[in-house]
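Supplementary Note 3. Input sequence used for the single-chain structure prediction.
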Amino acid sequence: MTFTTPDSVPAGVALRVLEVQGHPPDHLSDFDGEVAFVLDDELRHLIQGSGRITGDVVRFHEKDVTSGKDIRVWQVRRAGADFLAEQTPSF
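The predicted structure, written as discrete structure tokens, is reproduced below.
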């Protein structure tokens, strides 16, 4: 079985989301279900997985594209005109 080691991203740092499913995010519902989004950092990380709206945030489970296993959990929230994603504890 192959498991791809994910690129490292800073923990506890909210990163701006540049696009989700190929377009700038408009609503939290853009992150609901199976989607991919790009983070605004030096490497422009592509995050793929599954999100679910919980109140005013989305809890997003990043998946390894080859195995489907969970890699990290993110919280996506709106901050003014931007959407921010931050790694959160997985429990």
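The chain has no helices and six strands. The chain has one domain: 15-88.
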